[in-house]
Amino acid sequence: MADVNTSHISNIENDRAKISLPTLVHVCNALDTTVDHILAEEYKDPLSAIDQAILHELRKCDAATKERILKIVQILQ
């Protein structure tokens, strides 16, 4: 399904070969999953999608707006 021979997959699984990005994408597609899901455990502090979306929007704000948002978040906790 991933268009990769089984011996190569075995070598990857047993850490005898590195997986290329195109092969990783093919394997993820075959497993009906995403690359970020497979690699999530590799990051020391992975941000969730909602955290990333919040940070993305915060970057657009000026300092005064960020201070107001911080106060709102603190009140909501």
Describe the fold and architecture:
The chain is an all-alpha fold and 77 residues long. The protein is 61% helix and 0% strand. It is built from 5 helices and no strands.
Features:
single chain; 77 residues; mainly alpha; 5 helices; 61% helix; 0% strand; rod-shaped
Give the SSE map.
Elements: H1 6-13, H2 21-30, H3 35-39, H4 49-58, H5 63-76
Beta-strand percentage? under 5%
**Uncertain ranges:** none
Query: Main beta sheet, described?
Result: none
Task: Round the mean pLDDT to the nearest integer and report it.
Answer: 89
| Radius of gyration based on Cα positions | 20 Å
Summarize the structure.
By secondary structure, this protein is mostly helical.
